[in-house]
Each structure stands twice: as C-alpha cells, then as structure tokens.
Amino acid sequence: MDNDIFKALADPSRRTLLDLLHASDGRSLNELCAPLEMSRFGVMKHLNILEEAGLITTRKVGREKLHYLNTVPIRQIYERWVSKFSEHWAMALTSLQDELESETNVANHTRHVNRIAIKATPEQVWQALTDPDKTSKFWFHCSVRSTWEVGAPFELWCVDGEKKAEGKILALTAPNRLAMSWRFLVIPDAAGDAPSRITWEIDPHAELPGVTLVTVVHDEFENAARTAGILENGLPIVLSGMKTFLETGSTLTGE
C-alpha cells in the first residue's frame, strides 16, 4: 500500500489535485478540472489513482460526486517511516504533514472525510468503537461512554477522570452507522464552539473478504472553527490507532 501512495504522490498533477482539495475540500470533477490544463479524462484518471491509493475519498451528494482529502495514509506513512530516514527526508515528511493538517478554513470546508481499511469485521469495529475498555487503547487514552441509544448522551472521559467532550447519539444502526453530536469541554477556545456532528460508517469491503472500510465524516461545524481544526488533525490518529489495535492488539505508542 505504501508503494501505491508514494507512486501517487510522485506525479505533480496529482499533488496539485491534493493541494486543491486541501485548499477547498469536497470539490466536483468540474471544479478540479478548471485549474488544470488537461482533459477531463486525464483529471479523472489522476483522481482514480489517488482514490485507489486512499489519498482521497468520494461521496455522492445529489447528482454530483464530490472529492475529499483523506489524511489517514499520510499520517500512517509519517508514523511508520519518519524515524527511519535521514533528517532531511524526515523534515520533508513533516512539512507535508503540517501542510495537510494546517488550520481549517471553515469558509471553504463543509465537511471532513477520512477513510481507512481495517482487517476486521464490522462487528469487531463496532465493539472497538463502543466499548470503553477498547476506546481507551486508541482514542487518546479516553473512554467513550453511552448507553448507545438514539437520543442518549455521549461522553469522552480521560483516564485522569476529566470529561473531555460530550454530545448526543443522533442515529444508530449497529454495526454499520453511528452519528453523534460533538462538543469539546476543556480544550481552550473550543469549549465555546457550537456542537458539530461526527458520523461513523462501517461497511464490509466489496472486494476483500474480512476487511472493513471505516469512514468518519465531520460536518455541521460552521460555528465550530476550533473544533473543526482539532478533529481534522485528531480523527486520522484515532482511525490509525483503531486499525493498529484491531489488527495487532497493540497501540500506536506501544503502551
């Protein structure tokens, strides 16, 4: 998978497409074609390569197919390889990570979409997402607490006994979909944000038996700029940690 990502990033046109999505996420094919001097077919070919490498995700909104930047693979490359290369290469990766994770421009972003493939069943992913003992292994040492019923409260508690975030269960169809409102309580500047929404979509991979695609969508953050920036950086780490925990039984930090 790493080879596919590096090959996808090697082409300047594809890097331009990633830059365009970083500047304004959720763009249609027509919007992405405008800045590039190439045919519509050429842009579609590059987008398909980026999607196959997992660097972008797509969602159908009405009649349009919109494209979103997926920072999870970049995060995984950073975590796996950054300490194994020379300082010069490490600085280049760090620069790329910083560029992809810079402060969210809420005016140009309507939602953030992250996706990852995990070698586990949807039921195992659902249990990891809803069992407090398991969430503490990958959600920044925090336990997710709820009775898991529509309308029930949702809370994120740190191991030190501090409640970090809260919300309400908006929709629930186990083991495939979970939507919740989200509001930080103790993070500076974000505690005053209005609630936003996080939606988990958990589906069996169409072509790989035993593999589940996990998609996390953060939206409705027009009045939650600080929250959007924090979750844009944090959710890819949560997804990477979930994958590591379910596939190896260990954590990203090795604890």
TrEMBL record:
What keywords would UniProt list here? Answer: DNA-binding
Gene3D superfamilies from the xrefs? 3.30.530.20, Winged helix-like DNA-binding domain superfamily/Winged helix DNA-binding domain
Protein's UniProt keywords contain rRNA-binding: no
Q: Which InterPro entries match?
A: ArsR-like_HTH, ASHA1/2-like_C, HTH_ArsR_DNA-bd_dom, START-like_dom_sf, WH-like_DNA-bd_sf, WH_DNA-bd_sf
Q: Domain of life, per the record?
A: Bacteria
One Pfam entry for this protein is AHSA1
Q: Which GO terms describe its molecular function?
A: DNA binding; DNA-binding transcription factor activity
Please list every transmembrane segment annotated in the UniProt record, as residue ranges. Answer: none
Domain HTH arsR-type, first and last residues per copy: 1-89
- Assigned protein family: Belongs to the AHA1 family.
Q: Tell me what this protein is called.
A: Metalloregulator ArsR/SmtB family transcription factor
Native organism: Cohnella zeiphila
